[in-house]
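Re: weekly structure request thread

Next one in the queue (58 aa):
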Amino acid sequence: MNSENKTNSPNISTNSQPYESKEELNEKAPFEFGLSVALGVITIILIAATAYLGLIKF
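Done, posted below.
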């Protein structure tokens, strides 16, 4: 019986993106946070407006 031991390099996907540095992440974080807060506020305003106009009922 012949068994082969193959030593492969760590599993790295060919499509994986390189790690971002802390500086790049620190630049992105405030923008993404502001965007998510703005979208949340807009969603709440739209829900409140449609409820006020009677288009949806709670």
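The two ends are 71 Å apart (CA to CA). The longest helix spans residues 22-52.
Next request, please.
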